[in-house]
Amino acid sequence: MDKIEKNLLKQIADIEKTPMGAYNIRENGKLSARNTTANIDIVTKKDKPGIDIIIKPNTKNESVHIPVILTQGGLNDLVYNDFYIGENADVVIVAGCGIHNSTCDTAQHDGIHTFHLAKGAKIKYIEKHYGEGEGTGERILNPQTIINLDENASMEMESVQIKGVTSTVRETYANMKKGSSLVISERIMTTGKQTAKTVFDVNLDGEDSSVHVASRSVAEDDSLQEFISNVKGNAKCFGHVECDAIIMGNGRVISDPKIEANNVDASLIHEAAIGKIAGEQLIKLMTLGLTEKEAEEQIINGFLK
Amino acid sequence: MLELKDICFSRDNKNILKNVNLEIDNNKMVVITGPNGSGKSTLAKIIMGIENPDSGKIVFDGKDITNLSITERAKMGIGFAFQQPVRFKGLTVRDLIEISAGSSSIKVCDACDVLADVGLCAQEYLNREVNGGLSGGELKRIEIAMLAAKKSKLTIFDEPEAGIDLWSFNNLISVFEKMHDDIKGSIVIISHQERILNIADEIVLISNGKVEKHGPREEMLSQIFNKVKPCHKLEKNEKCNEGRA
């Protein structure tokens, strides 16, 4: 693995050397490295590109890293990864994709991740997307996450698009049974003429199911972001969607929230705020000795932390 | 240390400050008081550079800072605690204390000390976001802790007591006294509270955009309380008998 590839891995998965536990590293559309454990199996799909990650019931304190890196322009990498999390397992899954494109051709990765959490299973899923490279070719990432939570299963999802992605459509669909819970935290930064579209579609089908979606984004320069959410309360449930965006330069953000209560005991909240950095925030940090530019950076870094 | 010369400031055809002249010496605790709308907060903002005077001159440590930016003044050693503290989504108490101290290497125990001084448990607050989840009183104390961490030669507090409960009020007085002893700088407090006036070396009375009087505490206190209307004395928990027929 060369320096560029190592840097991509560090950016998206914080991996500097061989990760502990199970892993599957995909490089330019091909398997680069894999490790399985007694409790976590990774199997290559036979009918389409991708892998099945099978985690045995009651597996605890283990992790799976499945980063994808692309360093070739002109490559359109589509992959289907299915996660089967056994009953009462409690694991961390780190995914993500980094593209280094030094060509004038487009480099694209579309990762379709489907999670099946059995009863009482619990996961923390971390997904980072990152682009770099001096080429004029576009860097496109279209992740799709499909989440199926069985009774009392819970999932915490952290989704971060650090920088350098020309365009992205990020879709998350969730179907939730009784007592299940889902917490999604999203951070997106766009610059230049980049575009980012995020879709959250959540079905709260089971009694006492709950979802909390918190999206924070910054749109700089001439970039455009769109946030679409639709949370359907089909039972006694709780849903909270929070969308905060900072716009700078000619950046634009469209927020299109929808909450749908289909049961009288459904309790759903949506909060959205879009605006530039408040002048008083800049002034406060300047009175502490920061320049306006430094103050702006601190505010943005904190907001997206 | 600080000299204001003929400062004038007007907005919307209203003269808010009229030829204000004021000198603050080194290592002094100065309280600026006066009726609402008399121009006290505007004066504080002009010293920090948040507002610019229409005319006049500001000299700090012998240097004309009238045209310097907020950042330049902050770096020279001026600090300012807002009357209404600002909220930041994402920045934690620790972030703000580190920025205030001018270094990310501020020791955790030092950050804890400044929080403890304002009556906040560091363990509970250090990693909390300075956002809408904090009450007005908590924000106010964090604001004061930031200024304690900044250790400026000149620190200005704009109505620090506003939003602070009575229980914390005595601690607040101790914080100012401790800051004054530790930093050996000057502290300027805009306040209406007699207990804060009582810790001043000097008191400045501003009225209708002008410095009406400026002098040592004892001399000023007797003049101020002989002048104020009875209802002001209610702040001292006294019965409002005076001035009645």
The coarse silhouette of chain B is globular
The CATH class name of chain B reads Alpha Beta
Strand order within the widest sheet of chain B? 6-7-8-3-9-10
Tell me what portion of residues of chain B adopts beta-strand conformation: 15-25%
Structural description of this entry:
The complex is a heterodimer of chains A (305) and B (245). Chain A is mostly beta strands. Chain A contains 3 helices and 21 strands. Chain A has one domain. In chain A, strands 1, 2, 5, 6, 8, 10, 13, 15, 17, 19 and 21 form an 11-stranded mixed beta sheet that branches. In chain A, helix 2 crosses helix 3. Chain A starts with a helix and ends with a helix. By secondary structure, chain B is α/β, with parallel strands linked by helices. Chain B has a single domain, classed as P-loop containing nucleotide triphosphate hydrolases (Rossmann fold, 3-Layer(aba) Sandwich). Chain B is built from 10 helices and 10 strands. Chain B has a 6-stranded mixed beta sheet, sandwiched between helices. Chain B has a 4-stranded antiparallel beta sheet with strand order 2-1-4-5, with helices on one face. Chains A and B meet through helix 2 and helix 3 of A and helix 2 and helix 3 of B.
Q: Can you give me a brief rundown of this structure?
A:
The complex is a heterodimer of chains A (305) and B (245). Chain A has helices at residues 3-13, 279-287, 292-303, and strands at residues 22-27, 30-35, 40-44, 50-55, 60-65, 68-70, 76-85, 90-100, 107-117, 122-132, 139-141, 144-149, 154-161, 167-176, 181-190, 195-204, 209-219, 224-233, 237-247, 252-261, 266-275. With 305 residues, chain A is mainly beta.
Brief descriptors of the model:
heterodimer; A: 305 residues; mainly beta; eleven-stranded mixed β-sheet; ten-stranded mixed β-sheet; 3 helices; 21 strands; 57% strand; globular; B: 245 residues; alpha/beta; Rossmann fold; six-stranded mixed β-sheet; four-stranded antiparallel β-sheet; 37% helix; 25% strand; disordered C terminus
